[in-house]
Amino acid sequence: MEAIASNRKDLDADPHGRSNHEQALMTRTPVRALLVGPAHQARWVRRLFSAQGPKEIRLAHAINFETAAEHLARGGVDVMLLDLGPEERQVRTLIRAAHDAAPGVPLIVLDETQNEALAVDALQRGAQDFLDKASLSRAMLARALRFAIERHRLQTALRSLSLLDELTGLHNRRGFLALAEQHLLLLRRRGAALLVFVDLDGLKGINDMHGHLEGNRALMEAANVLRSCFREADILARIGGDEFCVLMTDTREDSSDHVRQRLQKRVDQTNALEDRQFRLSLSVGIAEVQTVHQPSVEEMLSLADALMYEQKRDKKTRAGVRVFDKQHSQA
Q: What is the dotted CATH code of the domain comprising 173-327?
């Protein structure tokens, strides 16, 4: 009875009759939501939260996805609300448009029906939740927004783990393929790009002579050399045991010579450090990715194997960076 009375007292203490859980939700950082749909629906959502005191939801409104893109370009959107309205039959098209407009923002669909098949379809298409407006309360919407953001964050983290190399933190082969496919589409509009292939020389010898811990150190040093020599917009990956790959997405102010010089300088700096048990040595192949008759990602990786094999066979033995430049073109 005391526990019941205590709970009742907590409810009575809040002027709006909210439970402890609801009050806890209201004290968090406000959620920045963007509603895409009719203006009267935005007014309805604002009224839903108008009596809550401290603003837990900061709502922006866009009548369509073109206007939504302008909001998203300015940043500051945590979650998107999509009101289907009378266009519920176009749920697939609308969800696709929402993801195209904001691929990194979680999506909640609002509808006036309790169509379970429609809800399942929306969730399968990537929506985080499907809410029936007729039975929606302030607490339910607040909770749905918070949970959608958290689920999206966890899903993104899990996808990142599956696309990253555990040792170096670079993308793995799967991650490189996924990102390169997207960037190749942009390259057709931006112009020339470079694909840089890097092989860590003598990894087996380092492992045999100094142990696998030093071998791992060599791999991490190679990864750090790449990080220091390329831009954040470039795609860096470890695609095999001792092989790395970089897709330079914008080379309008860069060249293979500049890449060669940066790599050479960074490797020399690494080898100049004291207390080293081995010298870092990289073999590098640099291929130009044409915007006309552009190869697929798999073709580019096949070219990487050919470049590395040819360069390994023909190069002279010396420490530091070995660079083999070869342009890729197709008739």
A: 3.30.70.270
Q: What are phi and psi of 165, to 5 degrees?
A: -80, 125
- Report the pLDDT averaged over residues 82-101: 79
The 10 Å CB-count burial string (b at 16+, else e) for 150-162 is: eebeeeeeeeeee
The number of C-alpha atoms within 13 Å of 8 and in the hemisphere containing its C-beta is 5
Burial readout 254-288 (b: 16 or more C-beta within 10 A, e: otherwise) = bebeebbebbbebbeebeeeeeeebebbbbbbbbb
SS3 content of the chain, % helix, strand, coil (to 5): 50, 20, 30
pTM reported for the whole predicted model? 0.54
Least confident of 28-42, 86-100, 154-168: 86-100
Residue type, 190: R
Separation between Cα atoms, residue 26 and residue 19, nearest integer Å: 11
CA atoms within 13 A on the CB side of 214: 16
Domains 2-163 and 173-327 in one fold: no
Rounded Cα gap, residues 34 and 81, in angstroms: 6
Superfamily of domain covering 2-163: Response regulator (3.40.50.2300)
- The domain spans of the chain are 2-163, 173-327
- Tell me the per-residue pLDDT of 222-260, one tens digit each, with 9 for 90 and over: 999 999 999 887 899 999 899 999 998 777 667 878 888
For residue 276, pLDDT beyond 50: yes
